[in-house]
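Figure caption, in words: inputs first, then the predicted bound structure.
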Amino acid sequence: MADHRFAGEWMKDDMVLEPYVTPETIHKLESFKMTDEDIVFAAYPKTGITWAQELVWLVCNNGDIDKARSVPLDSRVVYIEYKEGGIITGLEMLQERPHPYMMKTHLRSETYLSQINEGKVKIIIIIRNPKDTLVSMYHFYRMHRGLGHFKGTWNDFFELFKAKHLLYGDYFRWYSSWLQHKDKPNVMLVKYEDMHHKMSDVINDVSTFLGKSLSKPVTADVIQHLTFDSMRQNDMVNFSNDAVFNVDISPFMRKGKVGDWKNYFSEEQSSFVDKLYKDMIEAFGVILEFE
Ligand code: A3P
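Bound structure (adenosine-3'-5'-diphosphate present):
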């Protein structure tokens, strides 16, 4: 096994703070068999993975909003590397279930190289502009018990980012790992900002990618169901009952905007991110919207 894929190595390297992920889980994931009906959602934290999961689940389930409103999203889509209840991982939970699986991961692509190369599983990468992602993550750090309810200022948080010392590692390194696979036939890229500005196109593209189709009236209902206000009030997706989060400090569905970063970033911080964005995201031909 190549050194760079060994969990202990690259985690230490980026100082990834991820209490749930053990080298043993990584090894199991590397050889985990996936079928062509399975879907993996791959996203850096706070880039809209919850939104994308709800969308894709509805596309795959003929827009069954009643079911979506009665079964928590985290039991419809399994967080594969997470230790559920501190006892077993999502991966172990799946072994009790029949395919097809819907799985969510925040791990970089190195762990999934064999599945990516086999070309069976469908992979949906979700990306959001780095500035809004960081602001969202700052508030996530504040509301997350496991992260000690981060007490620092925005500037303190930005220093953690610069030191590449955030949950699941550095945003830019994370996306360079996944974006190199974005043009493979079994991989699709979904942008948070597109879900904002052209949701119906995103639903069509996802449907085509997965070989599904929703009627026009069902699509209209799904779009309504996926609005920020609707999702914020929906306990199946808003994590309001998750003991890990203190939603009184900051709700999981916080603002849901494109461009909130302008309320936080200094000019210097903005230029710092702009340069990395050009070198490490645009370099893959990926253009993101910042407002
Ligand atoms: P903000 O903190 O900027 O509000 P993730 O699911 O990857 O953790 O991402 C969470 C972010 O997605 C939060 O961003 C949340 O508000 C936003 N989000 C979730 N559902 C949304 C929706 N329906 N419309 C807009 N933004 C949404």
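The domain at 3-129+170-245 is CATH 3.40.50.300 (Rossmann fold).
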